[in-house]
Specification:
The structure holds 2 protein chains of 2 kinds.
Chain A lengths: L3 E4 L2 E4 L5 E7 L5 E8 L3 E8 L6 E2 L6 E5 L5 E5 L8 E8 L10 E2 L3 E5 L1
Parallel strand pairs in A: 2-11
Antiparallel strand pairs in A: 1-3, 3-8, 4-5, 4-9, 5-6, 7-8, 9-10, 9-11
Chain B lengths: L4 E3 L2 E5 L4 E6 L5 E9 L6 E6 L5 E4 L2 E6 L4 E6 L8 E9 L9 E2 L3 E6 L1
Parallel strand pairs in B: 2-11
Antiparallel strand pairs in B: 1-3, 3-8, 4-5, 4-9, 6-7, 7-8, 9-10, 9-11
The chains are: A mainly beta, B mainly beta.
């Protein structure tokens, strides 16, 4: 049982390049989330998927797109990377029963540097 | 955007000292309050989820209380040890409306325990 896994662990991009961050969970969770963590800002929600087939914007969605590929996988895409997107990205999942207030389980994070 | 405030931002204590920190959140539309422990270079790990006014939770030397009427929660650490050094995050879930399946995080309290 690996929990929440993320790839890659670290990536360097040039401004304007695109990339996809991958996230998968093996806990049969319904909901999945993408956060970014910046110094002094805490964790901010980019996008989430409350259940398979649905996605919604969070607090800071601009410059990102997401795909809920199936129940296990939720990817985050940067179409044209900008230096402001340099951050640590965390994927999380929750909800075997689909109720609110359940604990979120986090992946190990992806460190992204945009030059 | 919901406002979740944590204080202090950072804290240095001697090994063996007891300490506590505060999380403030909107008292209206409350569903759940979460505490997470986040060690450097790792991912956040859940400590507690509390939903009822007056809830108290305990895990070893760490405990938490909840006051939903006034919108605050305290996290207590008794007899701090160096391994308690981490950032402690609180997060809020609301009852209904847009974003009710999301966690809104505070910026955290960074605890350093000096041996």
């Amino acid at each position: 049982n690996a929990g929440v896994t993320q790839t890659p662990k670290f990536q360097v991009l040039k401004t304007g390049q695109s990339m996809t961050l991958q996230c998968a969970q093996d806990m049969n969770h319904n909901s999945m989330y993408w956060y970014r963590q910046d110094p002094g800002m805490g964790l901010r929600l980019i996008y989430y998927s409350a259940s398979e087939g649905t996605t919604d914007k969070g607090e800071v969605p601009n410059g990102y797109n997401v795909s809920r590929l199936n129940k296990r996988e939720f990817s985050l895409r940067l179409e044209s990377a900008a230096p402001s997107q340099t951050s640590v990205y965390f994927c999380a999942s929750t909800g075997t029963s689909g109720t609110r207030g359940e604990t979120q389980y986090f992946g190990p994070g992806t460190r992204l540097l945009v030059l | 955007i919901l406002n979740v405030e944590q204080s202090p931002q950072s804290l240095h204590v001697q090994e063996g000292d007891s300490t506590n920190f505060t999380c403030s959140f909107p008292s209206s539309n409350f569903y759940a309050l979460h505490w997470y422990r986040w060690e450097t270079a790792k991912s956040p790990e859940a400590l507690f989820v509390m939903t009822l006014n007056g809830d108290e939770k305990k895990k070893g030397r760490i405990s938490a209380t909840l006051n939903t009427k006034e919108g605050y929660s305290y996290l207590y650490i008794k007899g701090s040890q160096p391994e308690d050094s981490a950032t402690y995050l609180c997060a809020f879930t609301k009852t209904s409306g847009a974003g009710s399946y999301q966690l809104t995080f505070g910026k955290g309290t960074k605890l350093s325990v000096i041996p």
